[in-house]
Amino acid sequence: xxxxxxxxxxxxxxxxxxxxxxxxxxxxxxxxxxxxxxxxxxxxxxxxxxxxxxxxxxxxxxxxxxxxxxxxxxxxxxxxxxxx
Length: 84
Hints:
With 84 residues, this protein is mostly helical. It has helices spanning 10-26, 34-48, 59-70. It is globular, with a radius of gyration of 13 Å.
């Protein structure tokens, strides 16, 4: 199966990082978790991507945000595609 890509700007990726951090702070957590990142990506998709793009592979974006938030501890993490 061929993976599709979604064009995204650095500014948009930085916004996802900030939203991930804000979600962690809202839960009084000092650390950003993969759940925070997934929610930030979900919010991004629902607010900026057209319905035609829904369902495309976002694993690269999640991996980038985790690397920014978690640093080297996120390297080598594997991701499974979920239903949402």
